[in-house]
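Subject: Sanity check before I submit

Could someone independently write out the structure tokens for this chain? I want to compare against mine line by line before I put it in a report. The sequence has 559 residues.
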Amino acid sequence: MRFSRLLRTSVAFGLLLTLSEALPVAQMDTFLFAGLRWRSIGPNRGGRSQAIAGSAARPYEYYFGATGGGVWKTTDAGLTWRPVSDRQIKTSSVGAVQVSASNPDVVYAGMGETELRGNVIQGDGVYKTADAGKTWTHSGLEKTQAISRIRIHPANPDVVFVAALGDPYAANPDRGVFRSKDGGKAWEKVLFRDEKTGAVDLVMDPKNPDVLYAAMWEVFRTPHSLSSGGPGGGLFKTTDGGTTWTELTKNAGLPAPIWGKVGVAVSGADSNRLFAIIEAKDGGIFMSDDAGASWKLINEDRRIRQRAFYYSRIYGDPKAKDTFYVLNTGLYRSMDAGKTLRGIQVPHGDNHDLWIAPDDPKRMANANDGGGNVSLNGGESWTGQRYPTAQFYNVFTTAHVPYHVCGAQQDNSTACVPSTGGGDELYDVGGGESGYIAPDPLDTDVFYAGSYGGLLTRINRRTGENRAINVWPDNPMGHASGDMTQRFQWTYPIVISPTDPKTLYVTSRVTTRRRWETPAAQSPSTRPASRPTQSSSPSRPRRSTGTSSGRDRTTGWCT
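---
Independent answer below. Compare away.
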């Protein structure tokens, strides 16, 4: 009997697929949209960046790469920024950017993200400008998908090296270190381990461009997992401009494999002084005084080792041998060869790149989850991040007339802006960086908003009410999935019923329904139902059949 039902279901599903494939695709008359024009409504608030670079020859000129926003440029030391790659590049997330020291008009940008959080945008290789960002041309390596570093020969902008991490989700051969001797027209793979291991960092000796160090990382993601580390990972060195490489991974003083993500730096004051931050069981920051032949552990502070897959970047000072910088949630500086680390205040957390002027260590540029910013006084103060590069997980509109547009910004808050505005008139509506927003269609001051971990808030901007109405009260952070009562996706859906604006649907591994029947000033309570069953978010809500849960007549439902 069960087999018979399964067979009928399979046949019906197959017929449905066949019919859907046979049906003609509806064609939209483009004339209907001919009068519409795109315009930016903001918000003017920076978003995530993992690449930034400047020029020793042009102290007011910098470039940063936005994730999802292309290449941006400033010519006034970070006071204002403008996009320079729009309509000229085919993918939107920049993983690396580098300015030629001998000709600052030449800039290379590598596409695709290598800070492998759960949501990344892959790239299509390398782009190059020879006129300081006015025009860009594609320069190959389109199958690398994620580029972590670009290094340019200081005397010849046609000699360029690319560190490619490769496909974050599958094995592929287009990864490792590549070299071009003709300005990106042709490339040769000069360092390759295997189809699972890519290059995550690459640094050139400031005193000898034939000496480079490369960090290799075996990593992959699935929709539900991250694997960091494998036998292909390690540290490598070339002394002949990339033609041959020597592995340093097993040299004295370094931690035993397996290694995860690695960052490496050369001191501008002494080519023998190296720093490396290594994700490993006995990892931390290691230092070498003999150009990598031997090492010693100098710092294992958890502040600079947490979430290694998202950070693990280190930089040597161009003038002071004992000074280096290391990036994590904060930006840290050591001036005593790693004995102590002191934080440098930056405009935003989650730091991913740092550029330091080779002739002036006080002039630096930093890329973080709020964008790019510039300092001219060694990090004592920084320029702001007022530009529209925010990454939004979703878009919602309100019942205002004219309507407002709302969304949840990566590593920031929720934000709503008027559809008629210019981007500066933003306001927060609760929830957090990753959540859905459900504007109340009956009251434009009321919003329901979520964030990761099952956070769910209800705010009333008119009365000042702001409270958590989580479906389940426990914070699941740090728990195994089997120990969680409710498992919420990073961007779990929150939807107000289109047929009953007093009914709210929330989805974790199950769908929960709650009906609001109280005035905004009262405090309804939630009573989670027991033993819910799996369900998808409904498009046609069924009529409620539950009972009242108290005098305020707020009812909680589960399906």
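---
OP: Matches mine. For the report I'm noting this point. The first helix runs from residue 2 to 22.
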